[in-house]
From TrEMBL:
InterPro entries: AlkZ-like. It holds the Pfam family AlkZ-like. It comes from the Bacteria. This is AlkZ family DNA glycosylase.
Amino acid sequence: MRVRHISVAERRARLALRHRLADGAGAASPEEVADSLVALHATDPATVHLAVGARLNDPAKAVPETERALYEERTLVRMHGMRHTVFVFPAELTAVVHASTGIAVAARARAALIKDMAKAGAPDAAWLKEVEEATLAALARRGQATAAELAEDEPRLREQFVYAAGKGYEGVHTVSSRLLRVLGVEGKVVRGRPLGSWTSSQFRWALAPAHPELDVAEAQCELLRRWLASCGPASEADLKWWTGWPVTQVRRALTAMGAEEVSLDEGTGYVVAGDADPVPEPPRPWAALLPCLDPTAMGWQQRDWYLPPRLRPALFDRSGNVGPTVWWNGRVVGAWAQRPDGEIVWRLLDTEDVGREAETAIAEQAVRLRSLLGPARVTPRFRTPAEKELAAR
């Protein structure tokens, strides 16, 4: 049987339609956005709202509707997921993420905490278990609470221990910060409403919603199926990177779900079974201003088909985090930033096949973004050379 080749142009068309960026492909709610993208990066809290706003039919609803979904109706949940990273997921996907990814990460995180405490001469695992149980009980009473508030009920959370004593990166860790992170990856607590506005990175904690315990292999198939439906085709390297799983688990899930093999410019790729047929082109060229760590910009490890390698030094920080990006018709062509007075400024870094139509459309997206932000000021948590330069001018 002949393997179908999916071109770069078709991959860009799939991205535009399935990531709700093309004209006419927008979403009515944050839940629709999250369902289409599987996961929204949430390491930078503003990213969630801006990623939603870039895809909503009415961007003015991005902040209030995302707040509703996250903190009132809990249809979206902020929790640790793939690669030990904080994401926002549809609530119905939390059990899948926990079983497919969280369990293994959590076991390593708890073991590392116990090991670090033992090296520092801190109390043992039994003591830590007592503190954990008291902390969860306090959180159940309070509903939501900061680490400082929880420490009022369980003072042992304030205790500190030295991490990596004698090494160049030696530091002092507080039991509360490490324990709450472990409880997060174990699926026992989630991040609740932030202190301050929607741009704040200081969060309250809340008990995680109850979810069924799923079979690990079945959960991995389901997560991969959903992601390929949104982001396929993708290479094995993309899948391994996005999930954070060993390649053996990626291959096992691909086989179990009956993924279909296709040909890409960089080699072999995979799609959900039956999804190799051509897709229609978007009705017209489209522009978008996407925030730092946007799930589309960070969706694949192999990015040459939508992000020219020559642009990477300006658009990524040293840890591989992408900054705010300007898109034209399926590829990254520039960067944007918000200045202290609120103005949205942007610059084309790649002018290949970018003409007046593109510049007009990008300028319209900048006006749309400025309206979404209102009085808010957003500085990316991970700053990149292009963003810093634009913001300072």
